[in-house]
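Response to reviewer comment R2.3. The reviewers asked that we include at least one raw input/output pair. We reproduce the pair for 5'-nucleotidase SurE here without editing.
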Amino acid sequence: MRILITNDDGINAPGLEILTAIAEEIAGPSGEVWTVAPAFEQSGVAHCISYTHPMMILKLGPRRYAAEGSPADCVLAGLYDVLQGERPDLVLSGVNRGNNAAENVLYSGTVGGAMEAALQGLPAIALSQFMGPLTEDLETPFEAARDHGVAVVRTLLDKGIWDRGDYRLFYNVNFPPIAGSVVKGMKVASQGYRTDTFFGVEPHVSPSGKKFLWITGGPQHLPTAPGTDVAANLDGFISVTPMRADLTAHDALSDLEVRLA
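Raw output as returned:
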């Protein structure tokens, strides 16, 4: 099996080391794992691509490249430059440091990388590690992902839905913020929504008198509705959410058509 991996935390991120180990076990001794990851951290860039300027790409070692762009850029670079059109069997993105559940999905470069792979017609999985007080003192805060990542990916490959239609389905996986030994299992969950948790800005004035704005986030451990991703994670489960890039509100189409007739 040929696997392409990327992330949004950057080529030197510890989560990418975890993902590399997962991918190598899935690929097997006769398989190939190719890495194309951002040269610098690209958290929060979602599915953006470097459409208006070129990006530098550098070979760091065998099947290992750093690209000066977003995770979606890295997938494109991997498919059409690094692999020279030799399509991988699977694209994995992550393992992100921090959850990409609920509204975080919309900002996530990790999810953006998997989404671009799906738009290119490839099977893709985004993987993220929820962080919290119980992960701080572990040998690695990625312990749940390290211990269960291979099993999750194999289960999705064997039993998941892999359609080939427009806006191909891909998967968003979040590992709970606990030790690997106490993970309760997997739960299929919809994307949740944290009420009263929003991104904002915090202004700071530099010594030169110029104003700069830092983007701020809200609390990450507020539970979402039962049956959704954050609720599953905070209850000790790995959440598995099937997704598509189609943003149409299909539930509103018929009603809107009647209203506008």
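The CA atoms of residues 105 and 111 lie 7 Å apart. The chain is about 25% helix and 25% strand. Further pairs are available on request from the corresponding author.
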